[in-house]
Design a protein that fits this description.
single chain; about 800 residues; alpha+beta; five-stranded mixed beta sheet; 34 strands
Amino acid sequence: MNAQTPTSAERAEKLEGMGCRRKRVEDIRFVQGKGNYVDDLKLPGMLYGDFNRSPHAHARIKKIDTSKAAAVPGVVAVITAETLKTVNLAWMPTLAGDVQMVLADGKVLFQNQEVAFVIAEDRYVAADAADLVEVEYEPLPVNVDPLKAMAADAPMIREDLKDKTDGAHGKREHYNHIFSWQSGDKAATDAAFDKAEVKIKEMIVYPRVHPCPLETCQCVASFDKIKGELTLWGTFQAPHVIRTVGSLISKIPEHKIHVIAPDIGGGFGNKVGAYPGYICSIVASIVTGRPVKWTEDRIENLSTTAFARDFYMETEIAATRDGKVTGLRCYTIADHGAFDACANATKWPAGLFSIISGSYDFPAAHVLVDGVYTNKAPGGVAYRCSFRVTEAAYAIERAMDIMAQKLGMDPAEFRMKNLIRREQFPYTSAFGWQYDSGDYHTAMNKALESVGYKKLREEQKAKREAFRRGETRDLMGIGVAFFTEIVGAGPSRACDILGIAMFDSAEIRIHPTGSGICRLGTKSQGQGHETTYAQIIASELGLPADNIMVEEGNTDTAPYGLGTYGSRSTPVSGAATAMACRKIKAKAQMIAAYMLEVHDDDLEWDVDRFRVRGNPERFKTMTELAWAAYHEVPPGMEPGLEAINYYDPPNFTYPFGAYICVIDVDVDTGATKVRRFYALDDCGTRINPMIIEGQIHGGLTEAFGIAMGQEIHYDEQGNVTTASFMDYFLPTAVETPHWETDWTTTPSPHHPIGAKGVGESPNVGGVPCFSNAVNDAFAFLGSTHIQMPHDHWRTWTAAEKLGLHG
């Protein structure tokens, strides 16, 4: 070999493929203010829409007078439910099999519900006119407590369902009941509890929170009356789903609907479903013949668009006296608000909540979830998690700490004793999930050693003694969490939305000069898809990542896909990308064999080329083969070098992690300082370590916000008291702790590149880790469980209840 010839390693490094800390290509435009967001879109003749909203949480509408609003100069039209009834659009289907009012029809069911839609020449005119819509209300009794939703005297939320005994998921047991769903073996679990030597039972509440992306939900609808075609730009995490839903609702043929999702300023599950603003904008454009833009403000976003969590989980663990778990039982009340608009797979009304056994070897387990209606906004999206996985992880990780406390065991030791062992994989849980791979003990040991866990406990013991002597007013807490997530929705046998299997797709076209374009059914909201998908292609095809363009979000050009949420991009669409690459590589191999005059099997792949086995000096690079694909293909072969793959995963993927948090709590003020947070994640094959770290930093910051202050709170009258950032805690750089990240690598055996996904993991593991740390700080004083969020006031109150204020 010539001394100047680059080695395989040198050639691989130049590709910037998988494993490379490649800089995000998206950031070039973002840091220069050149991103292209929905609100940047300005079309000729564009109108603006705004809502009149209800001040009541539950009230009958006696009369709506739009005359004053319609008389405002610049107002083009005012739409109410009566208007929508003329085109059969007063109600719309939800992704969960329910129906939802587009505009209030007869009564309002939650505060700030949409009542009328004003269309005007100017956004400010629309907002001013919306305030002039006069609505006469008759207030009705309100219920915002899910634990009272099925009481005999509870207010009836959904009068449209009062005579329906069957719901989308079976029998309804009460007029406010949505579904009952269960998983596991109840008889075996009950038997385990009957025999248990030690048991714990705790009501663990994961309060209602909100994804609160920096960019709110918005859209622009433009209907071409000549062609009968609708173009819809919007903040859509799943553009193809929006197109399908839009067609079902509007009856416009799907091929005449063009959905485009440009750059999105964060989604976190908030932008998966369809909102009244989308439907009203479409109707307004059809009626006026002009484009209509709708942009919600922050209060509207926090108080009306899809919330997350709101799970009341009565969790029980059975164990032996020496600390071996024998059973898990959980009964949950799920608050869905006024409509069931959860973005869950059809077969799973409570999402993937049955991952609640977590990382532990429970021989028997059972869960039962009842979904209920209340006078709150609808939603229930997977806010930086996969379909209720965060709720499950919080419940089991808090319960494990509570059981460890009762047993008098260290929480890390208790977890180590019950973690699934490496030799048990693939492991089938008590709920029937087949965990693909894991090395939990290695991860946990690495985490404990990295933070010096033993010394931390010794320090804590000394500080507790000092506190008892009155020498300090600070409590030290150490939180431990070990989580397993279930992501990559999903296998079509288990997951669909509106009857559409949750596969995903990739279409790759290599141009004659060796560059290429990859179009996908996913949609980035900040995850760095343009960077990472190109790295997969670089490693698979031996073409530089810089030569690959990645395109998403346009239903006219992208293959059909189910979008981005629940850490499904890499596990599903990333797999589709790899499989499409392999189709291309197979064709390229035949072209190379033809050009080198050898059999296909006489060639071997080497980074960026096919070379003849035993004669490596004879080769054809992928760039050369791209050119040949357009002029020198074997007889009978079609020219070109492109492929498409629709990937239906054989199983979910199961990333996991070990997190440890150290805090100090001032009992006199309730102030909590995060001294240290260590996060070890195992997401299988690591595509871009720098992007992984960024994802973990972001997810942990959101976990910090949730655990330490976030709650969408309602008073007894149904008023939202946390509907702005004045009241809803959003961490900034000032409050956010320093994050230490680490990893182990356990590839998924069924994924084409072994990747598992990581975007949701830090939120799943971070929340219980923070909460465990706060609870651990007070545990030696007899406290068992302090509910989230752990803001200053609630933490001070917990100290007050323990008599720590004299």
